[in-house]
Amino acid sequence: MPLLVGVFDAPGNVVGSIERLRNRGYDEVEVYCPAPFPEIDDALIEKPSRVRLFTLVGGLAGLFTGFLMTIWMANDWQLVVGGKPFTSIPPYVVIGFELTILFGGLMTLLGLLVFGGLPHGRFGVPDPGYSARFSAEEFGVTVRCKERDVAEVDALLRANSAKEVTLVEP
Amino acid sequence: MTPPPPAVSVADMIRPVPTPPDSQANQDILAVMGRPTLPYWLLLGFLVAFVHAAGAVWVYQVYEGLGIAGYSHPIFWGVYIVTFVFWVGIAHAGTLISAILYLFRSKWRNAINRSAEAMTVFAVLTAAQFLGIHVGRIWKSYFILPYPNQRGLWVNFKSPLVWDTFAITTYATISIVFFYVGLLPDLAIARDRSTGWRKLLYTALALGWHGTGRQWKAWNRSVLHLSGLATPLVLSVHSVVSWDFAMSIVPGWHATIFAPYFVAGAIFSGFAMVLTVMIPVRRIFGLEAYITNYHFENMARFILLTSLIVGYSYSIEYFIAWYSGVEPEQTSFWYRAFGPYWISTWIMIICNAVVPQVFWFPKARTHIPTIFVVSTLVNVGMWFERYVIIISGLSREYDPAVWGLYTPHAAELTILAGSFCFFAMFFVAFIKIFPVIAIAEVKELVIHERAHGQGGAH
C-alpha cells in the first residue's frame, strides 16, 4: 500500500492533520516529532499512557520488598541492637522508601520500553517514511492508504499547511 | 492558513523525503562533539594520568593498610568520608534541576539539565569510590549488602550506614536512568548525523528512537514519573547521609536540623559546581546562544537562597548548643570556632554564608567572573563544612582525656585531588561523546517560539 509523508513546521498543523485524517477514516497514521509536544501524542493516542501502571506496580513492589525484607531478616537472625524490638518500623521506613523509588524508577524505564515500543525496528534501519529532518525541526506525518486515496490524503495534508508531501512507497 | 500549493502529479511525488540543511540547534550543539583539539587531549591525558596516580596510591594503601592515612585516636573518619559527603552533595544539583524544576515547569532548566544530570551521575560514581576507599579492606566491602550466606547473618537495618548504602545505590541507579531517558531523543539526533563508530554507538543506544507519537507519549509520561520519584529521592539522599552523623551521639552531630541542613548544603554545592564547570564550557564551546546569562543568574539566585538556609543552619547549630545547656555540646562548638580547627570553620562560614550574599546585587549575579569566583569559593567552603563537622566533632567528644587531633596525610590529599580528576575525566569525555545540552528540549522552545511568531500554530 502507498505510504505518504507530509512535512510540517508547526505542531498545531500536525494536530489538525491527524484529526482530519482520523475523521476521514485513515487509521494507519504515524507522526515523527523532533521534540516533545504532548498535544500531538494526545491527538494520535487518546488514552493516557499505561506507563503509570508500571510505575505504580514497581513502587508498591519496592515498598513491600523493603518492609518484608527488613522485618524478615531482622527476625531470621535475632540480634538485639540498642534494646529495640526486632521489628522496628521507623528505621525500616528508610529502606522501604528507597526501594519504592528504586523499583518504581526501574519499572518506569521498563514501561517506557514496553509502551514506547523500544527497541524499535531493525538495528540501524529507519522506518520508510522517516528522515533526518524529523530529528531536526520539522514534523512528519505518514499515512498508509489505498492507491485510490493518495490524491485525497495529499490534498488533505496540504490543506493543513504541509510544506511538502512525498510518496515514499508507491 | 497559507493556501495549498499547486497539486503535484502522483508520479512526481515518488521519491525519498528530501533533506534540507540541518537545524541551527543541531549544528551548534553537535559541533561541541566535533574533532577534539590538542589542548583537549592534553587535558584528558593529564586527568587520566592523575587518576591512575591516585589509584596507585590507593593500591599502596590497600597493601599497607589505613595506617598511611592520618587517622589517630579518636578520629577514624577523615578526608575520605569528608570527600564522600562532598561528592554526594555535588550530585544533588542535577536531579534537582531535572526533576524538581521539571515539575515546576521552569523551562529555563532545558539549557543546563543535561550537563547537570551528567555531573550528578559522575559525582555519585566519584562518591561511591570513597566508600570502598574508606573501609580499607576493600575485599570485605560487600558485607554491607544483605546477601544470603552460610552463617545465616543479615545486615543491621537499624544502622544508618546500611540506609546510606540503599540511598546511594538507589540514587546512582535512578540518576543513570533519568540521564539515559533524557538522552534518548538526542541520541537519535546524533545517530542521524554521524558516521563510523559513532553511528554504531548512537544507533545501539538510541534503541531505534524515531520520535513517533507512541514513543513520545511513553517518554513524556516516564519523565513525569521519574521526576515525581526523583524529587523525594533528592531530598532523602542527603537526609540519609546526614543521619550517618545525626544518629550518633557525638556532640555537634546529634542534631535534628541535620537533614534539612545537609539537603540545603547539597543543593548549594551542586549549583556551585554546575556553575564552576559550565562557565568555562560555555566559553570554550561558544554556547552563549543556549546557556545565557539569564540561566547563570537564576542559578546565582538558587545559590543565594541556599546560602541563606545554610547560614541559618550554622547559626541555629550554635544557638542550640548554647541553649541546650549541655556542656559537651557547648564545648564542641566553642572548639569548632576557636579551637585547633578554627581556620576550617571560618573558611566555611565566610565562603558559604558571607560571600554568596553579593548575589543580592543584580550587578554581581549577572557578572560572569564574579559568579565564577563565588561558585568556586562555595565549593571550597562546602568541602570545609564537611571537614569541620566530621573532624572537629570527633576531636572533642565527651571525655577530655581522649581528645585528639587529625591532620590529613599526603596519601589522602592525593586521593582527594584524584577524585576531582576522576570527576573531571568523566565530564571531559562526556562533552565529546554526548550532546552537552538537551537538544530536543531546546527545540521544543524554538519550535514553540517559531509557531507563535508566525501566528499559525494555535
Throw out a few tags for this protein:
heterodimer; A: 170 residues; alpha+beta; 4-stranded antiparallel beta sheet; 4 strands; 13% strand; B: 458 residues; mainly alpha; 17 helices; 70% helix
How is this structure best summarized?
The complex is a heterodimer of chains A (170) and B (458). With 170 residues, chain A is an alpha+beta fold. Chain A has helices spanning 11-23, 38-44, 51-76, 89-115, 150-159, and strands spanning 3-8, 29-32, 139-144, 164-169.
Any overview of this molecule?
The complex is a heterodimer of chains A (170) and B (458). Chain A is α+β, with helices and mostly antiparallel strands. Helix content of chain A is 49%, strand content 13%. Chain A contains five helices and four strands, in the order βαβαααβαβ. Chain A has a four-stranded antiparallel β-sheet, covered by helices on one side. Chain A starts with a strand and ends with a strand. The mean pLDDT of chain A is 91. By secondary structure, chain B is an all-alpha fold. Helices cover 70% and strands 0% of the residues of chain B. Chain B has 17 helices and no strands. In chain B, helix 4 runs antiparallel to helix 6, helix 4 runs antiparallel to helix 15 and helix 6 packs antiparallel against helix 7. Chains A and B meet through strand 1, helix 1, strand 2, helix 2 and helix 3 of A and helix 7, helix 8, helix 9 and helix 17 of B.
